[in-house]
Amino acid sequence: MKRLSTTALCSLVFLICEDAFSQEYLIKFATLAPDGSTWMNVMKEYDNAVRRESGGRLGFKIYSGGKAGDEKDVLRKIQLGQFHSGGFTGVGLGEIAPKVRILDSPFLFETYDEVDHIYRTFAKEFEEAFEENGYVLLGWAEVGFVYIFSKSPILTSEDVKRNKVWVWEGDPIAEAAFRALGVSPIPLSITDVLTSLQTGLVNAVYTSPLAAISLQWFTRVKYMLDVPLADAAGAVVISKRKFDELPPDLREILLRNGRKHMEKLTALSREDNRKSIQVLQKNGIEITLPSGVELRQRYYEIGKSARRFLVGKLYSEDFLTRVEQAVLDFRSKRSHSR
Description:
By secondary structure, the protein is an alpha/beta fold.
């Protein structure tokens, strides 16, 4: 028995050591996305593909559901070398490369086709912005169109002013949007929102339909305004320092699979958001519409004002003008082709 136990112990030690040596490069990755979500399911597929193609030499260790903290916490830990990579919304991405926040601009996009066109047109500039600030883009992972959810119906821009609106603490884009609407928003960490809805500290929030369900915010609101506030960007990035440690063949595997799986995630997220609106309605959330074309136009005018307010803070006047013009040109071509 003693001999058998010793043999078993040696075998176990061997297996542990073998696994440690086969995992030459481990990427510690963090995200707010909870386990079981589409986001995490695709991220695990990405990890499996990387491990398979690299013969087990490369893989992720994933910390989901905010275990590593809020997005700014994760970025600080990446700078300290405690983590290497993360899945971020626009708030975190803006801490790395402020100009990419143009993608979250209020009332800029009307359709996903317009969103895709801008990502394609300015892809090189966005990638360079990340690299200049010490990160490599592994793939865009869009959150989707964001709407205002509230406890009382919002039919006009004046109705928004009567609400205690949450804004993600330290998010200049959302703050500019609401201030342009005449609202003084209440800044809070995203992890404090559900409790604040319960206590009445806030009574209106903004998020995607899918996130409203995942975060359980829908249980504390009754209405959704059917005017997209913005298209919320998201991406998976890795510190350039860690990326540069990888051999060229592993970099290629990481980048190629990142693009592939994040494209899949974006497509799935869009479909999930569409289905989530139906789920919200079945759970008693009432979809409100602005009354008339004039009111919808008013929101887009507010968006222009908010975007101009951020010139010099996040992006240049030239960059904003080029992006806005690219959207208008694309929209014009689409309308003429119908």
